[in-house]
Model the fold of this input.
Amino acid sequence: MQYIIAVDGSYQPEDATVVGAVVIANASTQLVTKTAAITCDKEMFKSSRNVYGECAAALVAFQLMRRYLDDDPTSSFVLVYDYDGIEKWIKGVWATKKRLTREYVKGFQMCDLPLDKITFYNQKSHKGITDFYSYLNDFADKVCNNTVKAEFVVRSNLGEF
Done:
């Protein structure tokens, strides 16, 4: 089974919260199956604003990938994101200079995911809906900004991963 998972992050300055969103679709039916909002509340990471939300959402996605792989080792994934660091920190293209990025990479490593099972897809945000990936990216953005209600809420402190 192939899954398409879109992640996004948002900073809400009015209440100083950071939110990440995960939207999962089954590639064979192209139906959205899960939406999650991740509320991030660790003070030391709030200065990173939406980057914290982006990383937290990606870590939740990686944990879900691990579960899907445990259930079906033939599963594969397309991770749709709009922030370059989601892929570049994992692949070592960008240095992990801040604690946030080190925790992000550590969280990915703890999921023990084979990189060949994940296709990273950088979807430029706010460019309009032109295909299913841009639709999912837009949908994740709407979950972050409370335009679309999430099915469940996850609390995330990156240090827990």
User: Anything to note?
Assistant: The domain at 2-160 is CATH 3.30.420.10 (Nucleotidyltransferase; domain 5). Helices lie at 50-71, 85-88, 99-111, 132-144. The longest strand covers residues 2-12.
